[in-house]
Amino acid sequence: MTNQEFLSKHIVERKGTNCMKWDDLTSLYGKEDLLPMWIADTEFSTCDAIVNALHTRVSHGAFGYSVLPKDYISAFSGWMDRHYGLTIEKEWLRLSAGCVGAIALLVNAITEPGDACVIMTPVYYPFHNVVKENGRKLVTCELIYEDGTFHIDYEAFEKAIVENDAKLFIQCSPHNPVGRVWTEDELKKVLSICRKHGVLVISDEIHQDIALWGNRFIPAFSVAEGAYRDIVIVVTSVSKTFNLPGLMHSHVLIPNAELRAKYDALTQRLHCFNTNVLGQVAARAGYLYGDEWHKAFISVIESNYNYMKDTIAARAPEITVCKLEGTFLPLLDLSKVVDPKRMHSFMVDQCGMAVDYGEQFGAGYEGFIRLNIATDPKILADAVERILKAIGK
Ligand SMILES: Cc1ncc(COP(=O)(O)O)c(C=O)c1O
Fold first, then answer.
1. pLDDT in tens, 169-222
2. Ligand 1, atom 13: closest residue by C-alpha
3. What separation in Å is there between the alpha carbon of 274 and the centre of ligand 1?
C-alpha cells in the first residue's frame, strides 16, 4: 500500500465523535477552537481486518463474560516472533485495561510505600504521577540532550539508584517523548546497572511497533539473549500500533514466577484482571493480519516527519526538530524563538493549537513542545504553518 493509498483510505474525521483529542479541548486548554496536536492517537481508521473482526463479533449480539480466543497467544507470539524474534510464553501473560493502570498496579505489587522509583526524564508524564500518587519516592535521572537528540547518563543513573536505595526503574522503550529506540548496548548497560543494585524494571514497550527508518526495537526480554527476564516486567499493547487505545486492552508480561504471584495477588484482591472482549478480538486480528497496514502507517509517519523537519529547517532553523527514531511524538525545541514562560499562550492564543508541553515530561523542558505527527499531512502542514507564521517566518 502506498502512502497515498493509505491516506485516501484511512484518514477519518474525528471531530464530533466524542473524541478526547478533538472534542474536549476546553477542559484542558480553555478553548474549543484549537488544532489538536496533542495526546497519542491518530486520525487514521485501523486496518480492515480489525474492523471486519469487530463487525463479526458485534453482529453476534451477545457480549457476556469472555475468555481469550484460543489462538490469541499464538497470534501475539507470532507477531513478536515475526517482528522481533521473540517467543511469548503463555504463562507470562496477564491482561490489563491499560498500560498506565498496569504500571500503577505493578508499583503497588512489587514495591513498598516509600520505596524510591527511578525514571529517566523527560518522560511520559503518567510515569511521574504513578510513582507519586502511590506513595513512592520519585527519583528523576536526566537524559543528556545534545544536538537535537538524547542519550543516557549511566553514571547519573547509577548514582540515582545508589543514593536513593532505589527498588524500581520504570523504563520507556521506545522512549516517549525523546523519540529514541534504545540500542541493545544501551539497554544492556541500563539493565546491568539494575541487576547490580537489585533494582526491578518495568519496561513500557507500548511504542514497540513504531520504530522508524529501520531502527530496530529490541524487547527488554531479548537483551543479552534473555539474561534479564527475571528482573524485567513488560507492559505493552497494540493500541499505538493500530490506533486502538479506546478499546482498553493491554498486556503485562511477567516471566519471573515470584513477581507474577505478587501481581496476581494484588489484581485478585482488587478484582481487576480482565479486559474488553472487543479489545481482545481487535488485537488478535491485528497480530494476524495487520502487517501491511502497519507498514504503510510507519511510512506515513516517516514522510510526515521528513516534511516537518525539512520545512522548519528551511524557514526557521532556530527551531530544533528533535531526532525521531521511534514513536510519532517528536519534541520541538522552540526555546530560541519563544520565551518559555509564554509557551502556553504562544501555542493556544497565537498558534491556536493544543500540544503537549515539554514541562509535562520533565523540569527544564519549558521551551519544548511535543507534536503528534500521526495525522493527515494537511493537518500537520496547518500546524507547521501556524507556528512559522506566529514567529514571523
Ligand atoms: C509510554 C506510554 N505508555 C502508556 C501510554 C498509555 O497507555 P494506556 O492508554 O494503555 O494506559 C502511552 C500513551 O501515550 C505512552 O506513550
1. 999 999 999 999 999 999 999 999 999 999 999 999 999 999 999 999 999 999
2. 40
3. 18
Ligand 1 pocket, 99 CB below 6 A? yes
> What CATH number labels 3-47+291-390?
3.90.1150.10
Task: Give me the CATH topology for the region 62-289.
Answer: Aspartate Aminotransferase; domain 2 (3.40.640)
User: With 90 as the cut, is the pLDDT of residue 230 above it?
Assistant: yes
In a 10 Å sphere around its CB, with 0-12 CB exposed, 13-18 middle and 19+ buried, how is residue 290 labelled?
A: buried
Sequence spans of domains, the chain: 3-47+291-390, 62-289
β pairing state of 200-204 and 232-236:
parallel
Q: For residue 234, how far is its CA from the centre of ligand 1 (angstroms)?
A: 13
Residue 45 identity (one-letter amino acid): S
Cβ of 138 below 6 Å from ligand 1: no
Q: Is 239 in the pocket of ligand 1 (CB under 6 A)?
A: yes
Residues 144 and 122: their CA atoms lie apart, in Å, by 10
Bridge pairing between strands 149-151 and 144-146? antiparallel
Distance 95 CA to ligand 1 centre (A): 15
ipTM of the complex: 0.99
CA distances 323 to 37, 56, 257, 280, 300, Å, are 18, 41, 39, 34, 17
Closest CA to 21 of 1, 2, 43: 43
What's the 235 CA to ligand 1 centre distance in angstroms?
10
